[in-house]
Design brief:
There is one protein chain. The chain is an alpha+beta fold. It folds into 3 domains: about 35-145, Copper amine oxidase-like, N-terminal domain (Copper Amine Oxidase, Chain A, domain 1), CATH 3.30.457; about 150-260, Copper amine oxidase-like, N-terminal domain (Copper Amine Oxidase, Chain A, domain 1), CATH 3.30.457; about 305-385 and about 390-420 and about 455-585, no CATH class. The chain has 16 helices and 40 strands. The strands form 9 sheets. Strands 32-31-40-38-39-37-35-36 form an 8-stranded mixed sheet, sandwiched between helices. β16 (about 160-165) and β17 form a beta hairpin. α6 runs parallel beside α8 (about 355-360) and α6 runs parallel beside α16 (about 575-585). The radius of gyration is 33 Å and the shape is elongated. The model is unreliable at about 1-5 and about 15-30 (pLDDT under 50).
């Protein structure tokens, strides 16, 4: 039987329709078990669009997606087990338990191992395509190539590091400064696919990868990625004409995560004050000046003009080096504190204690960490950092330097506004006594001032001992005595050995070697250390011909388990041959 032309057309149309239906069924069936990644943070699941809280990314050969977004879109019921700290996923008769940052998971009570662990990125747990397919049956396609997520691991005191699952070597060990780990840019970035150059007009390292140009501004705390600037808490560092970048900068450059494990050696620039200079912002006019007893009262502000010449700076540095050599297993910090005259003396009378401190720090041994006290004091010089009638700084002044110190250690202290402050009134300090019988004394005594008294959070009472063995008790003292409206409010003044046991969440033990400038500083240390020992070298080893108790710093530090030895002095002590010798005698 022949088919008419008209019937042929009908058969052809029917056949074509059947083919289209067949193709549609095939594609529909394929689409039912597909996750298709689109631009940005969107994907489709079985043809339904899903918005993700984080864009999919590739990590070590697998595509990763946020677990809380993708699994429910595939019909999985989600939950949380607080005891196991596991994400619970139920689908059909199967139960999966996924653990953040772990390659272990539990399926129906049986522990199993993923090829790639669950990754926590920006606080969101993400899982790879293989475990997604196992749980849901869906496989992943992509219209766009997901960005690569990089994970780098550095180990303390090791030149070996993990470059996204591959072992790598560098010549120099990474080191710690503040809260950051630092690495040589020249060694690390090329191994991550960057081509390096130098842009002289802005003094910046140029890093090029994937047609993006990144600028790392040498010695500053910002980087540029094309036209976008990123600012960080800590700067890049330059040592011996080599540029080092920190972990936060590296994470931004590679769009990934830096993991630091183990203990890293602290390192800091010897020319720490190279770019620290004091301007004239807070200098007094000098309209009224009166002097007497080594005190100069300028517009009602009493000051001592104490210099640090090159000889005294180098000699003091040698003393600090001797102390550090005596305690090789203890981290030693040195803090040289300028006086009020450095910031407030009229321009025509100004001195340069900063130059002397710079000279000290340049001559310290490499294992000693100097702390820049000048910078934070200058930045807060509009506040009451020094007494006007006394030669000491205030507890507020000590706070800003302590905050700088603790940040270099990689820790922190709450803002000063979070501490209870019980002020005392009517204080006239030591400068009035120094200037006794002069017009300067009259001015100072007619300008009494307020003593701010900030209470530590973790300790209130300490004990003063006469001897280094701490067997002869002299008295108990309050960390901050609110019954005293003078500098004596802070740790009860100068004692041979003053000890505070605190409830601070720390296992570290501090030994502070100081003259009286260290008293206000010590009150802040009670917020970060388990135990704080405050040592005054003027109370031992025959100082002044009357303090015959012996004190040896190595024996003491060994006995108490000291982790941090902090030496803090002001220019009067730094330039005093007697005090320098008293410190040196502690090493004998």
């Amino acid at each position: 039987m022949k088919i008419k032309v008209k019937d042929r057309k009908r058969v052809g149309m029917l056949f074509g329709t059947l083919i289209l239906i067949f193709i549609a069924v095939i594609f529909s069936a394929g689409g039912r078990d597909k996750i298709v990644i689109k631009e940005g943070n969107y994907c489709s699941v079985a043809g339904n669009e899903v918005k993700l809280s984080l864009s999919p990314f590739e990590f070590r050969g697998e595509i990763f997606m946020p677990i809380d977004d993708i699994l429910p879109a595939c019909g999985v019921t989600m939950g949380w087990d607080g005891n196991q700290r596991a994400i619970v996923c139920n689908i059909g008769k199967d139960e999966y338990r996924i653990f953040a940052d772990s390659d272990k998971y539990i399926k129906n009570g049986e522990e199993k191992t993923m090829k790639q662990r669950a990754v926590v990125r920006d606080g969101i747990t993400c899982i790879g395509e293989k475990i997604i397919k196992e749980i849901t049956g869906y496989h992943i396609d992509s219209y766009v190539k997901p960005s690569e997520y990089v994970e780098l691991t550095f180990k303390g005191e090791s030149t070996e590091w993990d470059n996204n699952g591959k072992k790598a070597e560098m010549k120099e060990k990474p080191f710690k400064y503040g809260k950051e780990i630092y690495f040589s840019a020249d060694e690390v970035l090329p191994k991550l696919g960057f081509k390096l150059g130098w842009k002289d007009d802005i003094k910046a390292l140029v890093c090029i990868k994937n047609k993006e140009t990144d600028y790392i501004i040498s010695g500053k705390n910002n980087i540029w990625v094309n036209d976008k600037e990123y600012v960080f808490d800590l700067p890049s560092l330059v040592f011996d004409n080599k540029l080092y970048i920190n972990s936060s900068m590296l994470e931004k450059l590679v769009d990934g995560k830096v993991i630091a494990s183990g203990t890293f050696k602290l390192r800091i620039k010897r020319d720490l004050l190279e770019n620290t200079h004091i301007g004239n912002d807070y200098r007094l006019a000098g309209t009224s000046v009166a002097s007497g007893g080594g005190v100069t009262v300028i517009d009602g502000f009493g000051m001592e003009f104490l210099g640090i010449n090159s000889y005294n700076a180098q000699t003091y540095a040698a003393v600090v080096n001797s102390v550090a050599a005596a305690v090789p297993n203890v981290q030693v910090y040195n803090i040289a504190v300028p006086t009020a005259a450095e910031f407030y003396a009229p321009e025509k009378m100004k001195i340069d204690q900063t130059a002397g401190i710079r000279e000290i720090y340049k001559n310290l041994d490499e294992n000693i960490i100097p702390i820049n006290a000048v910078k934070p004091l200058y930045e807060h010089a509009s506040e009451n950092l020094y007494f006007k009638t006394d030669h000491h700084w205030t507890q507020r002044g000590a706070y800003w330097v302590y905050k700088e110190f603790i940040s270099v250690k990689g820790a922190d202290i709450p803002d000063i506004s979070e501490f209870e402050n019980q002020p005392g009134y009517g204080f006239v300090g030591s400068l009035a006594s120094f200037a006794r019988g002069t017009a300067a004394e009259t001015i100072l005594r007619s300008n009494s001032e307020t003593v701010e008294r900030f209470l530590p959070k973790y300790a209130s009472v300490g004990t003063v001992y006469e001897d280094m063995e701490m067997t002869k008790t002299l008295r108990t003292v309050k960390a901050v005595n609110t019954a005293s409206a003078s500098y004596m409010a802070f740790i009860g003044g100068d004692g041979p050995v003053t000890v505070f046991n605190t409830e601070a969440p720390s296992n570290e033990i501090a030994v502070i070697i100081k003259e009286s400038y260290g008293n206000a500083f010590a009150t802040w240390a009670l917020n970060n250390y388990k135990t704080v020992y405050v040592i005054d070298p003027r109370k031992f080893n025959g100082f002044g011909g009357k303090y015959n108790q012996k004190f040896n710093i190595k024996t003491f530090c060994d006995n108490v388990g000291c982790t941090d030895l902090i030496m803090i002095n002001y220019p009067g002590a730094i330039s005093s041959g007697g005090i320098r010798q008293a410190i040196l005698d502690m090493t004998k």
